[in-house]
Amino acid sequence: MEEYRIGDPQVLKVVAHPLRVRLLGLLRTDGPATASELGRKVGESSGSTSYHLRILFKYGFVEEDSEQRDGRERRWRSRYRYTSWDAGKLSGTGEGREAVKIMHLRQAEMVGRVLEEFDLADWPREWVEVAGMSDDLLVLPPAALKEFEERAGELLRDLAARYADHPDARKVHLWYGAVPRSRTEDS
């Protein structure tokens, strides 16, 4: 279970639906669940979550978890650890640019939701000191951003392997991203 690489803007739009993004994220982070369980977590009816799970199934994002069958209800699980797409390739058409833009906005919404749910009072000092976000404004070419992405990925995989069994280890949301300033801001 590694990566779902999207090359079709229609498929990217399918997964970019706000509720589908949330459902898929929950299945990836919390593991298999029924439509009813997911509905309670996201404040939707089981009918609504069931419909969107069937759409995710149709496009290969989720599958039935036959190992954990729950009586009458299907348990669903994500087929992939994460979803990616080639923005450069998809941006060759208006539809592709629109799909990438929608997905970027969904990702930003998810960051906002996670930060809203994070309560400093719930965590010990050592977690509070390292949790949060920062930003930088640098002058870099595209090659430098590509190198950053590759090296950050390598570092994260190394750290995850080294600390996998650490008693203080927890699932952590970690984001990194970069976009150039608009041309009007840069002048």
Automatic annotation (TrEMBL):
Residues 10-105 form the HTH arsR-type domain. InterPro entries: ArsR-like_HTH, HTH_ArsR_DNA-bd_dom, WH-like_DNA-bd_sf, WH_DNA-bd_sf. This is Helix-turn-helix domain-containing protein. SUPFAM superfamilies: Winged helix' DNA-binding domain. Signal peptide: none annotated. One of its GO terms (molecular function) is DNA-binding transcription factor activity.
